[in-house]
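seq as requested:
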Amino acid sequence: MSIQQKKSLGFTIIELVIVIAILGILAAVAIPKLFNITSDAQTAATSGVAGALGSAAAENYAVRTEKSTNGGTVANCTDVGTLLQGGTLPTGYSITSATISAGSTISCTVSGPSSTTATFSATGIS
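struct tokens:
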């Protein structure tokens, strides 16, 4: 009489425990990173708005220098917000007020969600 081996059709309890332990470790590492993504995204968005403001200020200075009827006047950092497409800052953003004399360039600050801030350069022009 021959002895036949039984064929295993499932996982052993040890294999299941090891898989659950590995998933637990991965979750413990990944979940805190997911919560930090929101603050990173808000910081990046504020930096993007600051980049758009700096670009708008530079382009405005160039076109207004060429022809005084083009573009807009910039005598304060807050004036740069009106140079964006649509004429306003996105909701939730604000620019710190600072006077800019004609021909001078200063660093301005934009504030965004969750108290994120970024700077951009603006040149005054009348």
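Helices lie at 13-66.
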